[in-house]
Design a protein that fits this description.
This protein has 9 helices and 16 strands. By secondary structure, it is of the alpha+beta class. It folds into 2 domains: about 110 residues, Gcn5-related N-acetyltransferase (GNAT) (Aminopeptidase); about 160 residues, Aminopeptidase, CATH 3.40.630.30. The chain has a 7-stranded mixed sheet with strand order 1-2-3-4-5-7-6. A 7-stranded mixed sheet has the order 8-11-12-13-14-16-15, sandwiched between helices.
């Protein structure tokens, strides 16, 4: 039987879901994007999370979750699509995803759904439901008006609303997705969040979790956003073991002015901290970021290689 729930759900339901996910697809809890706190409703004031399932008595045979932001409901992300091994082949996942898509697009001002996948079988299923692959990524996009992702971006960011600098928080869980995807193939690596845009990535709902982890490692991230909850720049810092601060971020050349203001603001805040210095490590092919930091007053000190996702890449260290 197909059922739908609006988060929060009960502790028992969460236990049953985790039993499905860990034993039939996600291996361990670290691979689950919609964690127990989210299922318990910790973000219900800022994000709407809906669970779709096929169930038999108290057993969940298949699941899928959609997340959208209350301030920016035009976009959403699909995740936690999983079917119990013994019930695969019945089309449950496809039916759940179709139901989710139909329900979301039936609402006013709902425009696009994102999902990440590296599974070629799943990809064919999503394509049959209207999803298109986003180039240079393993993320797919489904538009109500059947627009391409590139055309969607051109309209999504067509706004003259005032932009402000805000501390990163769960309100940006969904809007961070189109922003990061707008930077693919830009030779960007953000060492603080460990986001690598050199290689194709399936990052979707997991992207926010990467930035959220900065808060747990003596750091902070900020962004430039407008009151429609759209992101135009992201910057962050981390305190290393030597009590020095590493600054990094993901920057779109279309909004250099906003990025410069964000970085200037962040540096001013950091100079008031009792630390041993501020520095940046920049991927050697990211010429735009190098020029930005140079303009901000950073000076190149040395070059070396760092291992990123199993690959040795050249970096330059710049000190402020």
């Amino acid at each position: 039987m197909l059922k739908t729930y609006t988060i929060p759900i009960t502790t028992q339901q969460i236990k049953v879901l985790y039993n499905l996910w860990i034993n039939h697809g996600f291996e361990n809890e670290t691979n689950i994007d919609i964690n127990k706190n989210l299922l318990s409703g910790i973000e219900h004031n800022v994000n709407s999370i809906k669970l779709y399932t096929y169930e038999n008595n108290s057993s969940i045979q298949s699941s899928a979750i959609i997340v959208s932001n209350n301030q920016n409901p035009s976009i959403s992300a699909l995740g936690e699509v999983c079917t119990s091994i013994q019930f695969r082949g019945n089309g449950y996942a496809k039916k759940l995803c179709k139901k989710i898509t139909d329900d979301f697009f039936s609402l006013d001002k709902r425009d696009g759904i994102f999902l990440g996948t590296v599974n070629p079988v799943a990809k064919k299923i999503y394509e049959s439901l209207g999803w298109q692959s986003i180039s240079n990524s393993n993320v797919m996009f489904n538009s109500k008006s059947k627009r391409t992702f590139e055309f969607f971006l051109s309209q999504y960011y067509d706004s003259d609303l005032e932009k402000t600098i805000l501390a990163g928080n769960s309100n940006f869980r969904i809007s961070i997705i189109p922003y990061v995807l707008s930077l693919r193939s830009k030779n960007q690596i953000d060492l603080n969040s460990k986001i690598n845009l050199i290689n194709d990535s399936s990052g979707c709902l997991s992207l926010y979790n990467k930035f959220d982890s900065i808060h747990k490692k003596q750091g902070k991230w900020l962004c430039v956003s407008n009151n429609e909850n759209k992101i135009f720049s992201i910057a962050s810092y981390l305190l290393d073991n030597a009590k020095k601060i590493r600054i990094d971020g993901l920057f779109n050349p279309l909004w250099n002015e906003e990025t410069f203001k964000l970085m200037t603001y962040l540096i001013k805040q950091l100079k008031n901290k009792n630390t041993e210095g501020i520095y940046a490590e920049i991927f050697e092919k990211d010429k735009a970021k190098f020029e930005l930091f140079t303009e901000l007053g950073f000076v190149e000190k040395e070059s070396y290689e760092k291992e990123i996702d199993g690959e040795l890449l050249g970096f330059s260290k710049l000190n402020l």
